[in-house]
Specification:
The protein is α/β, with parallel strands linked by helices. 43% of the residues lie in helices and 12% in strands.
Length: 273
Amino acid sequence: MTLQNKLNALKKRLAEFDAAAIAFSGGVDSTFLLSVARDVLGSERIVALTAFSPIFPSHEFEESKALAMDLGVRQIVVTSNELDLPDFAANPPLRCYYCKRELFARFLARARELGILVVLDGSNLDDLDDYRPGRKALAELKIASPLLEAGLTKADIRELSKQAGLPTADKPSFACLASRFPYGTRITLERLQQIERCETFLRQHGFRTFRVRHHGEIARIEVNLDEMPRMIKDRLRIALLAECKAAGFTYVALDLGGYRTGSLNESLFLDTD
């Protein structure tokens, strides 16, 4: 399918709904979905549902508010605290399943209070290529994923976002802060705040794509390979080291493999023979 054909398929799918609530984080995918849904259904027939939770950094939440306002779409904040879920906080490989099941059940309940029967999420075709246990929860709750249904990849969405003039077209991909912990490492508010503090430092110093992974006393930092030379310049290195130690880490390590999506999933597929 051509890019235009995929876009047409998306619009046709969205036109099937009388009204829709869209899970909106302010990321590349959900912003594009919200924009197209507004164009197809009109702003009065859609609503953006955004989670306010300790697993999402504050800057992402603030960006979502600005984007919803720019798009002229009503945004409703749904408060959640996944740390209250023992199955989530224990951080098993099914962590994302427990998270999505809880959060999207809240989204569905809020949508129905508004008289809206369908909740949409921004999953795309590339999400099928990684370990995504949250997809099972979405299926159980009958959450529609129109970007995926239309066959849109992340690259497609970025290109169409660029054509539409959306500011998120080249925004780096983002995952919740819980994704920074190896499976089996308990997720706590204090540890989430450690990660957010270190990543805020990297963002404020101009790094675009990065993750700070939590390994107990060790902060393992992933950045794109082309940004790695900056990381080891003395002034920045010393400042980063001080910030991570102030956040509570004893050791700070740079991952020579660079940033890669879902790097903590690598341990799930190791050949143990």
